[in-house]
Amino acid sequence: MRNYTINRGNRKLQRTLFLSLLILLMLMFNSCTAILSTSNSVGSSISALFSSPKKIENKITDPVRNDARLAVLWVGHATFLIQIDNKFILTDPVFTETTAFISKRLTEPGLDPENLPEIDVVLISHLHADHLSIGSLDMIESKVKELLVPQEGLVYIPNFDFESDELKTWHTWEKDGLKITAVPVLHNGMRYGIDAEWLDKSFTGYIIQYDGITVYFSGDTGYEQGTTIFKETGKRFPNIDLALLPISPIHPREYSKGRHTGPVDAIKIMDELNAKKMIPMHFDTFPESYDSLGEAESRMREAMKENNLTKDKIIILKIGEQKVIIPK
Q1: CB atoms < 10 A from the CB of 135, how many?
Q2: Mean pLDDT, the chain, as a whole number?
Q3: Per-residue pLDDT for 3 more than 50?
């Protein structure tokens, strides 16, 4: 295990010093949230800064499901609380109101961090600000046992009280029967743009296995014709119960396809993984390129009809909604 040592008392100062530089860099270089790719998106984000995020009605306060072997709660964007029997996994936790200081939430988090159960492992898929949120990790530090990041990912992780470790592609972390394996995806691993040259491996998907149940979490990924990585993952893990896959930003497709899947490509990945079910993510939480609010969900439903896929096969959650996928 390798730790990146930042004095906890200096975090606020560090963020303040980087503020101006980050805004410029995040607008100039390709990154995860599509506000970074077009002037239209920047305008949407600036507009969002002057409005309040949409409130979640009847927000869940006790997410532990005693009736479930597998349950999933969508907190928003790529943040899921996954329960497999007595284990709890949290993906790409973002509870802050903004990411990269400029992209503001359209919808508030679907679960308040104080209502999280004890988390066995937090998974970070890559280093972009809307997936690795240091402020959010601060909020939940006391609830987390372990943090896993992709190869090279610890460079931006402060010294938290929980354990932190890196996973190389196809390598597995295991504890008390819970197994996490890093699997390949199509994306990029930089955080500030200028670090792209040396952070060329710091992005990953994950396979989560516990007590006979398997969940695939992609983080962000693109899809290109001829790629074999998803078929290879499906061969190595032939019994995926659920795949969590992104469906936005959709536009502009030519720009986004190498790093972000739309609904049609997400369905292709689900098929190549041979996953039994899919839950879409990465939409309607932050501004996403030219995508309008609700567009990704609408296109997902159109793609489902075109491919004769039922709502039992592709489960579209609302932010804050929890679904029992496998009951006891």
Answers
A1: 15
A2: 85
A3: no
C-beta separation of 218 from 269 below 8 A: yes
Q: Which of these, 101, 217, 83, 233, lies nearest to 148 by C-alpha position?
A: 217
**CATH class of the 8-327 domain in this structure:** alpha beta
Burial 250-266 (b: 16+ CB within 10 A, else e): bbeeebbbebbbbbbbb
Q: Which pairs from 223-228 meet CB under 8 Å and 24+ separation?
A: 223/186, 223/257, 223/261, 223/265, 223/266, 223/268, 223/269, 224/186, 224/257, 224/258, 227/186
Entry pTM: 0.86
% of residues, the chain, pLDDT over 90: 67
Q: Which two tokens stand for residue 74?
A: 């969508």
Q: Tell me the C-alpha distance between 117 and 107, whole Å.
A: 22
Residue spans per domain, the chain: 8-327
What CA–CA distance (Å, rounded) separates 29 from 11?
24
Please write the tens of the pLDDT for every residue from 274-301.
999 999 999 999 887 677 888 999 999 9
